[in-house]
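[User] Once you have settled down, look closely at the record that follows, and write a paragraph about the fold.
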Amino acid sequence: MTYEKYLGYSREALLEKVQAVMSPKRFNHVLGVERAAIHLAEKNGYDTEKAGLAGLLHDYAKELPDQEFLELIDKYELDPE
């Protein structure tokens, strides 16, 4: 898995970014979800790289402070709901 075709940088670079924003417990969780997603994709004939990437990123913002969420909503003009 490289994820470069989706992100423009390596899996290792992505892991550094993901690890920097979450607790060790959550980081280990997303690594496990990545493995499970890849396994399920292989078993069911789906794109393993997309599945693995989704597994790594599914909790990316889970531990962000509320204020940072609000700032991102404003910055990207998202619906606050």
